[in-house]
Design goal:
alpha+beta; 3 domains; 6-stranded mixed beta sheet; about 20% strand; globular; Succ_DH/fumarate_Rdtase_cat_sf; EC 1.3.99.33
Length: about 625
């Protein structure tokens, strides 16, 4: 599973205390000044994907926008961190607010655009005029011809490109963001069963058992042929990636305490030593093999001829021009639809979940559907929980700070205390906190939102060092001792927790049913005293704290999803199929664009499963494309 390298888009690499200053002066495309704007410097802040985005706008004496400084150090460096200055530069160059958000970083772009608009409003600028001002002429259209075009430069797209390029084919990769990696770059490791690294570690594990376990977990709703093909090839893919500069190691322990007794769930987690370096190495190899990689280039459509054969794609370049790529084989590896708030809310039956995934909006799946494919099983990837309105912050080494936010209160989040739903009723065995996937699944059953109920006595105990084992699964917890009552009071002040001198007052503040909450707490306290959970079977050592010494607190917690998994119908070779099980010649899908490996909302509790599928399915798609291209030459 993804651990501390989980970031909001998520999630990743180096901390990026980004301060970009753009001095462009008057636009060559629009020389008329905005005479209503008053010269000076103006500042505004908006919430981005990972935290606040601040802009400093300088207005020249003639009313033009002279420069825009953007600070977005909470945004993901390779995505939002690059999108913010790109958008600001476009606004200054064109002296216009009639600009599109940067593809792949919609949330950050919207925050930057809103903040700039607010600063300009304060300056007295004519906002309507700026929104209607003409922008620079779009770039020239371009056409290219290759053997294989790969759309998406995450783990699956990268593996597909490597597999096709090493076979000597002419390969083009297009990526809508400013860098490669996608969700795979924020993951920590790779699920594989049969590798030399595992054998050196003393574990000779069975592919057959791994396949059987996955099929049983998915209640035989996943495609057995695909599951076996992936598991059989994952080990070889680990060793293949090592040849391209991806270094792995086998963990000595697991942060997911629920997995300790099953080596298939955690020893199979081949962790990356340095994910950023791995991508540098893989793309250096692609460059050496002659692959053409185009960033800031977004898929628009898949081209299919009159015979029903896919012959390439069209895409929009960073300058607005159209890129038409004629290709013998097309591989779509654009990820899922995690950035589509309406679609994810519908899939989860709730708008209360927090999103921590890459900003893929489902464009690849939609493009495949437009040429006859269909969405088989794409669904949000539920993964851990966080406090409401948490912000991911990073330390100086680029690691995400604990618990999705920099507060010791995450120790309360990551322990099995009393959890209740929005009515005040207990709903699960809280020991699920020790399994990242099951933890989020429990939140799903109550609409993505629950409350942790504690009293002052419990918080005082945490201030001195809790008696409970604090999970470091998923985001982990910040383990510094602190004044937990003060931290909880600060959450109440921020609106992410509620407080009451009595349970009745707490219920009223949080909108719970007072009788339900009182009955729940009374029953829970009885079980704590007896040391036995007769409702859900929580371990006796987890029944460490009763709830009876006010003040009382309810901490607002939300389930989290990391983009989506599943996707369009493919066969075991990753060739796209119609709903009539007919192949679409020349078209392949991989990673979070391809379906059949998972099923339903629940993510199988095997660490590194999504990353292992991404790379392995991408490699299979690349090899299948090679076979197809060679067959039609």
């Amino acid at each position: 599973m993804i651990r501390k390298k989980l970031s909001m888009l998520l999630a990743t690499t180096l901390v990026f205390a980004m301060s970009t200053s753009l001095f462009v002066g008057c636009s060559s495309n629009n020389n008329s000044s905005n005479s209503t704007a008053k010269a000076g410097k103006y500042t505004a802040t908006e919430k981005g994907f990972g935290g606040d985005v601040t802009v400093n706008v300088t207005i020249a004496e003639n009313g033009n926008i002279e420069s825009i400084d953007v600070t977005a150090d909470s945004e993901t460096p390779d995505i939002g961190g690059k999108a913010a200055p790109q958008l600001a530069e476009t606004i200054v160059t064109n002296q216009s607010l009639a600009v599109d958000t940067v593809s792949g970083a919609t949330v950050t772009s919207t925050a930057v655009l809103t903040a700039i608009t607010n600063a300009l409003t304060e300056a007295g600028a004519d906002i309507d005029a700026l929104k209607n001002a003409e922008t620079a002429k779009k770039g020239e259209n371009e056409e290219a011809t290759v053997d294989v075009v790969v759309v998406g430069a995450g783990g699956s797209g990268t593996a597909a490109a490597l597999a096709a390029a090493e076979a000597g084919l002419n390969v083009m990769v297009i990526e809508k963001t400013a860098s490669a990696g996608g969700n795979t770059k924020i993951s920590s490791g790779f699920f594989a069963v049969d590798t030399e690294l595992l054998k050196e570690d003393g574990h000779d594990l069975s592919v057959d058992k791994a396949v059987q376990d996955l099929m049983e977990f998915n209640q035989y709703l996943s495609n057995g042929t695909i599951v076996r093909k992936i598991v059989e090839n994952a080990g070889d893919t680990v060793e293949w990636l090592q040849g391209y500069g991806v270094d792995f190691y086998i963990p000595e322990t697991t942060t997911q305490l629920a997995h300790e007794d099953d080596v298939y769930k955690w020893k199979t987690y081949h962790k990356y030593k340095d994910n950023a370096a791995a991508y540098e190495n893989m793309y250096a190899n692609l460059d050496t093999m002659g692959a053409d990689v185009r960033y800031n280039t977004s898929l628009e459509s898949i081209i299919k001829n009159d015979e029903g054969v896919v012959t390439g794609i069209t895409a929009t370049k960073a300058d607005g021009g159209t890129l038409t790529v004629n290709a013998k084989a097309t591989i779509i590896a654009t990820g899922g639809y995690g950035a589509d708030a309406e679609k994810t809310a519908k899939a989860l039956n709730s708008e209360l979940f927090n999103s921590l995934g890459m900003p893929n909006a489902g464009e690849g799946i939609e493009a495949i559907e437009a040429v006859g494919g269909y969405d088989l099983d794409a669904t949000p990837l539920l993964h851990a929980c966080q406090f409401a309105a948490s912000e991911v912050k990073q330390d100086s080494a680029g690691e995400n700070l604990a618990g999705f936010s920099d507060t010791s209160l995450t120790q309360v989040l990551n322990t099995p205390l009393l959890w209740v739903d929005q009515t005040g009723s207990r709903f699960t065995n809280e020991d699920v906190v020790y399994d990242t996937a099951f933890w989020a699944n429990a939140a799903y059953t109550v609409g993505g939102k629950y409350y942790i109920i504690v009293d002052e006595a419990t918080l005082k105990s945490f201030s001195e060092g809790t008696k409970l084992t604090v999970s470091q699964a998923g985001p982990g917890a910040k383990m510094d001792l602190d004044d937990f009552i003060a931290l909880a009071d600060a959450s109440v002040e921020a609106g992410t927790a509620f407080k009451g001198a009595t349970l009745e007052e707490l219920a009223e503040a949080a909108g719970m049913d007072a009788e339900d909450l009182k009955a729940t707490v009374e029953r829970y306290n009885t079980m704590v005293k007896k040391g036995e959970d007769t409702d859900f079977g929580k371990a006796s050592e987890s029944l460490a704290y009763s709830v009876e010494s006010g003040n009382f607190y309810a901490l607002d917690v939300r389930g989290v999803f990391l983009g989506t998994i599943g996707g369009v119908k493919v066969d075991e070779n990753m060739q796209v199929m119609t709903d009539n099980y007919e192949f679409i010649p020349g078209l392949y899908a991989a990673g979070a664009t391809a379906g059949g490996y998972y099923t339903g909302v629940g993510y199988p509790p095997y660490e590194g499963l999504a990353s292992g599928f991404a790379y392995t399915s991408g490699r299979i798609a690349g090899m299948s494309a090679v076979d197809y291209v060679n067959s039609i030459k």
